[in-house]
Structures are given as C-alpha cells and as structure tokens.
Amino acid sequence: MNKTFSIFALFVLFQICLSSSFAQTKMNLNDNWLYLENHTSNLNEAQKASNWVSLNLPHTWNAEDATDLMPGYRRDASWYQKKLNIPKIDQNQVYSLYFEGSNVTTKVYVNGKEAGSHIGGYIGFSIDITKFIKEGNNDIFVRVDNSYDIEIIPSQKSDFFIYGGITRDVWLVSKYKNHIDNIKITTPEVSAKKASVQIVSTIINPDNAKDLSLTITLKNPKGKKVASKTISVSDKTSTITFENIKNPELWDTEKPNLYKLTASLSEKNQIKDSISEKVGFRWFEFKDHGPFYLNGKRLLIRGTHRHEEQAGVGAAMTNEQHWADMKSIKEMGANFVRLAHYPQDPEVYKACDELGLLVWDELPWCRGGIGNEVWKTNTKNMLEEIINQNYNHPSIIIWSLGNEMNWLPDFPDGDNAEKTNAFLTELNDLSHKLDPTRKTAIRKYYEGSHIVDVFSPSIWSGWYSGSYKSYQKAIDVYKKEYKHFIHAEYGGDSHVGRHSENPITGENIIKAEGWEEAIVQTKVANIAQIGDWSENYIVDLFDWHLHISENDPTFVGNVQWAFKDFATPLRPEDDIPYMNQKGLTDRNGVPKDAYYVFKSYWAKEPFTYIESHTWTERQGPENTPRTISVFSNCDKVTLSHNGKSLGEKQRNLTLYPANGLTWDVNFAKGENVLIAIGKTKEGKTVSDTLKVNYRFNKNDTAVSLQLSSKKLKNGNYLVTAIAVDNNNLRCLDYEASIYFQCLKGGKTLKNQGTPTGSESIRMANGKASIEVIPDGSNTPIEMTALNQSFKGEYLRIEP
C-alpha cells in the first residue's frame, strides 16, 4: 500500500467514525497549521494579515528567543489557524476541540464566531464547537496570549520561562449526544489479599433518555476479565463498585501492574459511547515523623524534579521527547518525580503509570504571594482542573498546592501570612473534597506547614547555604518538627567539562551549620556564588546526600533538583546564559557525571563509570597520587591503570565517597588508560574505559585561542576553542566567557542552552565548543571566537 493511499484510507475511516451513531472518536490535529505573530485582539484584522507561516503543533514562539542573548523574551499574543474539513455532520453527535495545553490564555473562534476560551496554561480544556461547524471546510482561529498578568499563576518572578503558544497536542473529539463525560476511579480497599474499585461516571443526557445503561468491565494486566456489571442510568452520575477482587496484582515502583477498565454507555442496548482507563491497585502511607510506605512496605523515596522543556523547542516537546525524559529518570533508578512547578503533558502521567514512578503533581502557585479575588478564582479553577483531569493516575500520590508562595509578592500585602493561610486552607479543603484519597503538600512556606498533609522545608546544604556535611543534622531537625516531612530540592549547578583537582568547598569561609536558602542572595556567602561550578564538586555533594539518605532507616527520602538543565529568565549571567545548570543531564538529556552517582545508588542494571569522561586532560606534580572514584552498583569492582591491576574493592554502602570504590592513581606522563571492571553477585561483569592525558608541568597564563573543527556524523561541524599559554599548553584554569560567530558559509546552532549550542559560553578547563551547520553553498565556513582577553581568532573550514 503506498503512503498516499494509506493516509487517504485512514482519513475515510475517521470520517466514517465521525458520522456513525455510536462510540467516540478522537483525531489528532497537530499538522498543517498557520501561525501569525501579531497581538491584535481583532479576529478580522488577523484574518486579513498576509504574513502567516506554516507549522505543526506543538509550538511555542519562545522556543529560541527565551535562550537567545537578548534580555527578556516575548510575552505577548499570537494567532493560529487551521482548515478543518468535516464532510458530514451527524446531528446526534457533539463535536469539540481538546487542547492538552495552551499557554497562557486562549480564545477559540470557529467560522468567525467565538466558540470558547480558557484561562491558565499547563492543563487541558475542551471547546464545544457543535453549534459553530458546518459540513465541508471550517475555519479555526485560535488566539493565545502569554502576556504578563499577575492575576494568573505562575508568577513571572518564578525561576523558569512561561512559554507562549499551543505547546501540546490538539484533538478533534466527536461523541454521541448521550455520552460519558467523565469517570473517577478510586480503590477504597486494597490489600495483598483483596481489593475493591469504585467508578463514579458522569453522564451527559440532554434529552433525558430513559433507556440508557452503563456497563463497566475490569480486566487484569494479562487481559483476563475479572469483573463486569451493568446498571440502568437515571441520574447525571452513576456509581458502580466491584468488591472482593481477590489477590490483586499490585501497582508498585518495581512492578507497575495496570488493570484496564472500560465503561460503555448503551441506548436501547446499542453502545453509544465507550472509554477506557488504567487502574492501579496500591496503598501508601507517610508514617508520623518517619518513612514512607507503599503497599505495606517501607519505600525510600528516591526522587528528582522535571521541568517540561527541551533544547530547541522549549515547552513544545513531542511525545517521544517526554517519554525519553521519563525513561531516563527511571533508568537512573528513581521511583519518584516532582513535576515542577506545574502539571505536565498527559504523556508524562501515562509514562509514570507504566514505568512505576510516584508523582508529586503541582499547582503552579510559584512565588508571587497572595492575590486579589480574580487571582483566587483563577487559582482555584486551575486546581480543580488539575485534580479532575489527573484523578485516575495511580502514580500520583500528592497534590502540591504551591512552592515558595509568599516569596516576592506581586500584589500589595501579598506576603501577608494570615491572608495566605486563609486561602491555602481553602485550597487544601478543596483538594480533599475533590480527592480524599491523596495527600496535599507545599514546599518552603513555613507559616502554612501545619495546613497541608506533607511539608518540604528548604535544605540547600552546600549550595545556597552551609556545607553539605550539615545534611544529616538538617533532616534530623525537620523529622522531629514536621509530622510528614519530605525533602524536595537540593543540589547545585555544574558546567559540563569543568573540573578541579581541589573543588571549592567553602571551608573556613561559609558557616557550616546553615542550610536555609535566603530569598535575596546579595548578603549571603555561599557556594553558588564563590564555588567553581565543577562537575567534581557536585558529584561530591550528591554522593554525600545519598550517603546520608540511603543509610537513614527513618528518613522518608529526598527529591533532587533538577533532572535536566532548564531555561530561566533570571540567570543571564550563568556559564551558559539563561540556563539553570542544576541538571543531572544537560538540556538535551545527555548525562553529566552526577547522573552516574544517582545511578550507582539506585539503578538495577549493572554498570561502572569512571569519574570523569569529560575530564581527559589533567595536570599535576610528578609522583602525586590522584584519587579516582568509580561509580557502580556492582558488588565488586577492579580498577587497572596502564594494564596493571590496582586491586579489587567491595562496594560498601556505608563508605564515602563512591561507596568505597576509590583508588589512588599515580598518573604517568602522557596517555593513561584506566579500566574498571564491575562484577555482580551473580557473576555478571561490566566495564568502563577512560583515557587521560596527564602532564607534570602546570600551564601559565592564557595568551591566545586555538580554533579547530571536526566533522560530525550529521554533516555539521564541531568548532572548538582552546585557551593556550606561551608554551602552547591548554590553560586548564581558564574559565572566562567567549563568543562564537559564524561569518560565512553556515550558521551556528545557537540559543539551545546546551554545552555546544550557545554562542556565548564560559570555558570549561580552557575549552568551549559550538556546533555549526553548513549552508549548503559548498563554500568555506568562516568562524571567529573572541572575548576581551583575546580580541578574536579566525578559522576557515574548507568544504
């Protein structure tokens, strides 16, 4: 079957479904939109515009301007339009457009008339278009606006970009006029021996038909039917309960077993609507002043945070990119993810259900303080949308009501604790009314810690305050103080490829016992300000935090900040401008050294990793041993240097650093080959090899740049700048920013916020690179790299 015929056949099939009298259909509308960057609120003016451009969804107009080198980013409105062909309209059907996410406010016009609107990004909404469509072509116009608006959360003072656009999938949905509007699934009783499941269905029945029936069927993970029931429908809501499901296959983080529940609505015994959901049987508990239990067993929470964005596309990620993030988090061994600081794409929750990741889902009340009545209404509406839409996901255990809420108020008296607590209590009550089965939480608003079920104070030991060695004392204090305490957010920035033989720890400079983060950092001495941002330091910091958490039997667990580097308007001065570089991976998801520290404590699949694959050029005095750490989850590891074994070591969870997998290595001049071989208890072996070029003479002051290029597999070039001294030695201590520019023959891969995708970047051990895309003219590429120190160097790349 050729591709053209295949697409036509699928289209015809969908049209048949659209015009049928039963079941509901859902068609993706991501392709073939037009986009207009114009803030007019006048539909006629937008229709007359001539500068529309073609694109596919998802899309944001801030994909690159957020991370370019110009201050600020576009906070304004734009238009989208699409021709929607509906050959036949069934009068017994209702039609709607479903937006998975459109940021921040949205108005939808169909055939010149306003069909509906939505306030707030990050969560889905439906627009009923039944009254506005006609047979044949329909004109869909959508105005999306991410303008600064203090009455809509999150606050612009948050440490992330508020991307504008239709940032997620859009669907055309058709349903029979009598249909299932929503089902809510709860599991009132769950144990290893038996379980129950309750399904509350909301039915739309505009003509008050009397002959409707609802059938619910439950199948186990292997597809075998375990329960089924049919009832007559007489009210707007119908409830069906299945009792005594024997020996349920439980959902947990190791075996995320999912049952399939199907609800079918029939009229005169003919099925008119049918929807399916996944069900997970699990129960959980936060012990008072103690650990967390899942299905009756203690589970140490091993978590990270995830921002929804990616290099080159911002928040407009594909489903494949969402899944790649979640799989990488799971492969690292995490069992928990905090979705920061807003609800995320539906595929993320689906991934967490299927992979076995517990979820902290968060209302984006992030900074900005308490607002006015309009603000409160918008905020409550968003919380209700979040809970109702994400209710059925077994992975979700926490509804977070906010983060750092009273920081940096947008409204007068916005940090008033009495007013904030009154509204927080409203949100807490609303959350428990909508969903009595899950916990509520907040982070770092101490005055409201008693209102919610679970509280996270701020502990940034070794970064924004104090030394990481104070971590045990911090968690011991808070375990006693808060009934249900979890630690969300810890870590620090690291610049890929930057290393130090002696990372700055702040000893004798920073007060060791502090661990609280200050709102304003101007008067606080901390590692974030004085540190070297080396990968080595962050490896040590994370290793210590995990050393503490993994050896504390009464600790609930912690949640590292953040999984990937992410873009932020608040950090133009960072090593990669406008990037928060606290990720365990770069903005493209490529692991840093720190990723392997977590993997060594948490992952199941055997591996070894020699610290560090981005540290292959080193220097130091002759006959001065260097400590080499190997991060591995293997029972035993052997390290060899230049063919000579340095001995086998037993991994010991109580030892720091690297669980005792460290060796002193006397590097030889020139090339050194290190090989680590790990052996599991079952006898399986894995290995890692690292080549290090070592020199005994220290570089002098940098005097110039050397530019070179390497052709990549994708046909692009990697242009690298090296800072050298008078003896032509690479200056491993040179860290100033340099600026790349392509003069002719191509263009730089810029505005990516990655180690090879930023025209301005601080050097890492005297090195910086950028990817360059040839323009196809088959002419030489001309590059410059410059800064105040070197004025400028030139490179010509022949095709």
UniProtKB/TrEMBL annotation:
GO BP terms: namely: carbohydrate metabolic process
Q: Name one Pfam family in it.
A: DUF4982
Q: Domain Glycosyl hydrolases family 2 sugar binding spans what residues? A: 76-174
Record's Gene3D superfamilies?
Galactose-binding domain-like, Glycosidases, Immunoglobulins
Record family assignment: Belongs to the glycosyl hydrolase 2 family.
Question: Where is each DUF4982 domain found?
Answer: 627-686
Name of the protein in its database record:
Glycoside hydrolase family 2 protein
Q: Which residues form the Glycoside hydrolase family 2 immunoglobulin-like beta-sandwich domain?
A: 179-282
InterPro entries recorded for this chain?
Beta-gal/glucu_dom_sf, DUF4982, Galactose-bd-like_sf, GH, GH2_Domain-Containing, Glyco_hydro_2, Glyco_hydro_2_cat, Glyco_hydro_2_N
Q: Secretion signal: which residues?
A: 1-23
The GO terms describing molecular function are: hydrolase activity, hydrolyzing O-glycosyl compounds
Record keywords: Glycosidase, Hydrolase, Signal
Sequence ranges assigned to domain Glycoside hydrolase family 2 catalytic in this UniProt record:
288-501
Q: Which PANTHER family match?
A: BETA-GALACTOSIDASE (PTHR42732), BETA-MANNOSIDASE (PTHR42732:SF1)
